[in-house]
Amino acid sequence: MIKSAHLTASVSRKAGGLFEAILRLVQSQTDSQIKVFGLRDEFSDADLPAWNPVSVAAFKTTWPRAIGRAPELLEALNKFAPDICHTHGLWLYPSIATKNYSRKNNRPYLISPHGMLDPWALKNSRWKKLIADALFERAHLRGARCLRALCVSEADSIRRLQLQNDIAVIPNGIDLSTAAVPSEPPWKNFVEPGKKVLLFLSRIHPKKGLVNLLKAWAKNQKTEIRNRKSEEWVLAIAGWDQGGHELELKQLATELELVWSDVRTPGPKGKFPGVIFLGPQFNAAKSACYQHCDAFVLPSFSEGLPMVVLEAWVNAKPVLMTPECNLPEGFSAGAALKMETTEASLVVGLNELQRMTDAERVAMGNRARELVVARFTWSQVARQLSAVEQWILGGGEKPDCILRA
Prior knowledge:
Largest sheet: 8 strands, mixed
Oligomer: single chain
Shape: globular
Strand content: 15-25%
Radius of gyration: 22 Å
Number of domains: 2
Helix content: 40-55%
CATH architecture of the largest domain: 3-Layer(aba) Sandwich
Strand order of the largest sheet: 3-2-1-4-5-6-7-15
C-alpha cells in the first residue's frame, strides 16, 4: 500500500472549492495510506471532522506569514515519511515543505496547481507571484515527477511556461448522491412566487466575472427585447466574499438601478428584488440552493475545473458558463450554454437561457447529470490518480492520462 502525503494551504472551507476537491479525492483513495497536511486558519477546527476517516494535521503559521511558513509542518512530514507527496495549489509554504522533504529523502512528488498557472491567475497579484517563483516555486515545479492538470486547457497553460514535466490530465470529481434537502432555499420570502432563480455560487472575487454579469443583467432588464423573458428571473449571488468585492457589487447594482436585497440584512418590505445576495452557503443550505434553483451561471475569467459546475450538473441543472471554466465537455454534451466573459456575450447568453422552455431546461439538466455519471465520479478520479502514483513509484505501466513531455 502506498503511503502518501497531500499538502495544501487550507484544510477548511476557507479554501473554497479546493476544500471539497481535495477532501473527496483523498477519501476516495481507499487503496492508499494517506495523511493531509495544511495550514491552520479560523475554520480549521470546525472543519477537521469532515475529513474522516483520513488523518489531517493543521499547523500554525509564523513569520513570514505572507507565505504561510509553518516549520512544524515539515517536521511532521518527515516523521510521517511518505513514499510520495502531492502538493495542491502553489505560492505558499506547502510548496517549500514538499520540495525540502522530497530532496532530503529522495522521494518523488506530484503537483496539482488547480488552475493557478492559468494566464489570468498568473496576472493576479503578479509581483507577489514573481517573488515566490524566484524564491521557491519554480524549483518546486521543476522538481515534480509529474504535474496534474484538471483538463487539457490547463495542460496547455503549463506547457506555455516551458515546464517539461510529465502531465497527468485528471479532472475533479463529484458525488452522485443528491438526497432530498428538507430546508428551504435561503431566498425564500425574497422571490416572488412563480419566478425562476439563476444561481451563482462561488467565491466572490473579481476573477469570477460578476461585474460584467450584473451589467448584462441590468441591460436585459432595461432593453426591450421581443418575447422578453428576463423579468421572470431573479439572480441569486451566493459565496464567500474576498477583499470586499461583494460591497463593490452592491454599489454597482445600485448604480445600475437594479433592485437588490441581502438576505442577511433585509431592507424595507415591498418590491421584490431582481438581485439577491445570499452570503456563504454550506452543507444543507448549499444543497438547497442547487436543488431549488432553475439554472446556474459561472462567468469566470479563470478556473481550474470548478467544483460548483459539477455540483450544479449532479443536481441536473442547466449551466451558463464561459470557456475559461475548462469544461468543454459540457458544451459538446449539450449540458451547458457557452458565453464569453464580455458584457455583450453575457447578454446573449442570458437571453438564450431565458428564452428556453421549461422542458428544454429540464432536458439540458438531465444531459448534465448523465455527463457527470459518465466522466466525473470520484471513484473514477481516484483510480486514475492511484495509477499515476503507482507508475511514478515504478509499480505499473504508464497510465493513459499521462501526456509525455
